[in-house]
Amino acid sequence: MDIFKRLFALNGKTALVTGGAGGIGTMISSALVEAGCHVMIASRKGEDCERAAAELNRIAEKTASGGSATGFAGNVANEDGVKALVGEVKARTDRLHILFNNAGTSWGAPLADFPYPAWSRVLDLNVTGLFELTRQLLPLLEKAATADDPARVVNLGSVMGTAVMGDGAYSYSASKAAVHHLTRILAKELAHRHITFNAFAPGPFPSKMTAHATATEAKRDVVSKSVPIGRVGVPDDIAAATLYLCGPGGAYVTGAILPIDGGTHVMSGPDLFGEAAEL
To answer: Alpha-carbon distance 242 to 100, whole Å?
Structure first.
């Protein structure tokens, strides 16, 4: 077996990706399917999930990856939605090797106008729903897990949960900081059950959520000027991180918040003394 298959192949594995029909969720789902995984894609709009799954199945057939996808509706923004989604998953599999808690929402407004409902709406989905879905799926994850090949849970955080940035998205940034900390807590508490917990902390990627700033080449060029590496993210950036954390090569990694942001998280403002020192 070559090193790439040994470290990154996912043949025979089963995954659930919430919010998997668009944006970063599609990037994750595509990577998993191309690595041989069977992927369940769930989001509020079941038709979108079905279309995304059909496209991924066409790619899998063309590449002979051995992977496949199925799509259906699932809403993790409230307790009833979580219960229904868990039922859909259990109807399709008795074990789950990979869970991607990717579904999320945001709300932006000036500080003076930031509305009270923007907190419950964002935290209910980004934090509470993520936690409750994970909690209810633990038996399926544990059934798939072994000491040498743990089950994997990957949560979608954000550079905005790591770096001090608001951009008017106060509840979103706070929710992603909570996701990062919750990821570490669960990594500690469930390591003995052979389940790893890690999180992505992406910077700017084109998606529906970031369309206001990434929908056109001109907008992406402006955003890129603020990224140390000088560009916004592309699907392969997410794909590589997905296969690392979910493949055999990532079995010894837990509690990590993986920055996929072109260096944005290490920015701390202008150099204090550099320009003056040159005078």
So the answer is: 9
List pLDDT tens digits, range 190-218.
999 999 999 999 998 887 777 777 878 88
Cα–Cα separations (whole angstroms), residue 262 to 198, 202, 231? 19, 9, 7
C-alpha closest to that of 97 among 137, 58, 130: 137
User: Around 236, how many Cα atoms within 13 Å sit in the side-chain half-sphere?
Assistant: 0
- Can you say how many angstroms the Cα of residue 142 is from the centroid of all Cα atoms in its chain? 20
Q: Are 107 and 121 in contact (CB under 8 A)?
A: yes
HSE-CB of 106 using CA atoms within 13 angstroms: 22
| DSSP reduced 3-state for 202 | strand
Half-sphere exposure in the Cβ direction for 77 (13 Å, CA): 13
| DSSP sequence for 123-168 | HIIIIIIHHHHHHHHHHHHHHH--SSS-EEEEEE--GGGTSS--TT
| Helix (H), strand (E) at residue 69 | strand 68-73
Structure tokens at 216: 């056109």
Read off φ and ψ for residue 68, nearest 5 degrees.
-160, 170
Domains and CATH numbers, the chain: 3-261 (3.40.50.720)
What 8-state DSSP symbol labels residue 37?
A: -
pTM of this prediction exceeds 0.90: yes
Looking at residue 124, its pLDDT comes to 98
Q: Are 14 and 93 in contact (CB under 8 A)?
A: yes
C-alpha 44/C-alpha 77 separation (Å) is: 9
Which residues are identified as catalytic?
A: 172
pLDDT, one tens digit per residue, over 30-74 is: 999 999 999 999 999 999 999 999 999 999 999 999 999 999 999
Distance CA 180, CA 156 (A): 9
Contact 208/158 with Cβ under 8 angstroms?
A: no
